[in-house]
Amino acid sequence: MIKHALHAARRAFSPGLRCFSEASGGEISEDVFERAGSPRLTKQASLYVHWPYCLRRCSYCNFNKYIPRENNDPMMTECLQRETETLLQLSQVSCITSVFFGGGTPSLAHPSTIAAVLESVSRRAYLSDKAEVTLEVNPTPVGKSKLEDYCRAGVNRFSIGVQSLQDGDLKILGRDHSPHQALQTVEEARRLCPGRVSVDVMFGRPKQSAESWENELSELLRVCDDHVSLYQLTLERGTQLFKQVLGGEVTMPAEDVTAEMYQCARRTLHQHGFLQYEVSNFARHKAVSHHNTSYWKGRQYIGVGPGAHGRFVPRGEGGVVREARTQTLEPDVWIREVQQRGHGTRRRIQLSHLELLEEVLVMGMRMSKGINHKHWELFSPQLGLHEVFGTSNDIQELLQSGQLILDDRGLRCSWDGLALLDSILPALLVMLERQISQRD
Asked: Distance of CA 228 to CAs 281, 289, 393, Å?
């Protein structure tokens, strides 16, 4: 089960796997969220839409993506619409709080596809005109040229995959844009959606040094908007980069160097007014990703498209327990299944109470604010944070070291502890499983 929870956490940020914030923004407040697993099931969810196609495969990528053999955009659009409506009907949610189009390269989709999916959402559930609608964009001239049309289609936030501002690194990574094109795309996106543009940047790249990373980050911060997502490059088995490193063609920075890069980025971003609100995400002027925040807070989300993941209660068929659902990976097979039965759900697993709490813990601890007592009680009304984690010797060591904090606010990592989250989580998960099993 612990392995299941850690895997779920990693998976949620590959799509990927953003309205739960300022009351003045006209969005859904946290108070609307009802107790998971109680008779009063939540009636809201976020929606993730996966566009599986890319023009080429990046050297480091093992995501679910395909190079299209022919243009089947109309068919893909029709099936995305149909699966959206089917799963919305199955979930019986009355409100979609945010929508995120990821991939793949969703900026290859025609803007009419985006508009069509959003129309399908509105037919089955309430989608506020102020709800966050994000589109991942590959910063090529083609991607840049379509930004305005995406805004007309209903997109109001862009996530730009800059990854690097070094020509040589972009070539090693197999990216098909240049640093200049990336900066131009960011500039155009900021013009269209000021304050609602995120940039993704990657560290730990081949031959990268801490000094070159600091210089690159400073350059990026001169042009970026109010949100930055940092990702450490990880070697995935079966990718081209993995083979190059294995064959000695490419060398990766040592672990202590990448650790220094992460700390350097945190310091630099803080100096530029960015607050770290999650392990990999930084925002200023409250420009947080509401869609991703819904993942970290353990809320329902519906996944549409080949390989998408979801977490929701299938109330439309009498369900009362949250399910982990995975859609069929291969686009052609997924299309066939959607045409035949309205959806391409390949795998569905009912989450036990422990599994649900594991996911709430793993996701919640990614946030700098951690998990407050009220939030934990939504999922575990009989067993509070102090009861679960306050008596363990292992947890006491983490508390005394200053890496972990358990107080009247809740459970969270300290500034230093957040950088060590991967080493802290196993102890928390072991204690959670022990406490739950003792009460079963």
From this structure: 6, 10, 37
Q: How far apart are CA 28 and CA 131, in angstroms?
A: 8
Q: What are phi and psi of 398, to 5 degrees?
A: -65, -40
Residue 41's alpha-carbon distances to 23, 84, 87, 140, 269, in angstroms, are 23, 20, 16, 43, 39
Residue 12 to residue 4: CA distance in whole angstroms: 12
| Inter-residue contact 18 to 293 (CB < 8 Å) | yes
The pair of three-digit structure tokens given for residue 171, joined into one six-digit string: 């070539």
Query: Peptide bond before 87: cis, by omega within 30 degrees of 0?
Result: no
Closest CA to 279 of 257, 298, 296: 296
Question: Which stretches does DSSP call E strand in 234-322?
Answer: 275-278, 281-283, 301-304, 309-312
Place of tokens 């993995």: 242
In this prediction, residue 342 carries a pLDDT of 98
**pLDDT for res 440:** 66
Q: What is the per-residue pLDDT for 253? A: 77
Please write the tens of the pLDDT for every residue from 8-42. Answer: 444 343 333 323 223 333 333 333 343 444 434 46
State the angle between helix axes of 73-91 and 331-341 in degrees (0 to 180), rounded to the nearest 10: 50
With beta carbons less than 8 A apart as the criterion, state whether 322 and 311 touch: yes
The predicted-structure confidence for 56-74, as pLDDT tens digits, reads as follows 554 444 554 444 556 688 9
Torsional sign, CA 136, 8, 302, 75? positive
Cα separation, 329 vs 345, in Å, equals 10
E strand map for 147-194: 157-163
Contact between 85 and 122 under an 8 Å Cβ cutoff? The reply is: no
Query: What's the angle, vertex CA 286, arms to CA 281 and CA 289, rounded to 5?
Result: 45
CA atoms within 13 A on the CB side of 317: 10
Maximum Cα–Cα distance for the chain, whole Å? 60
Whether pLDDT at 123 is above 70: yes
Cα dihedral 153, 158, 163, 164 sign: positive
Residue 205, pLDDT above cutoff 70:
yes
Size (the chain), residues: 440
β-strand pairing of 345-350 with 323-327: antiparallel
Alpha carbon distance 123, 28 (integer Å) = 19
Please check whether residue 359 is in contact with residue 351, taking contact to mean a CB–CB distance below 8 angstroms. Answer: yes
Which token pair is 184? Answer: 């131009």
Calpha distance 6→436 (Å, rounded): 18
Beta-strand pair 371-372/157-163: unpaired
Is the CA virtual torsion 265, 269, 271, 272 positive or negative?
Answer: positive
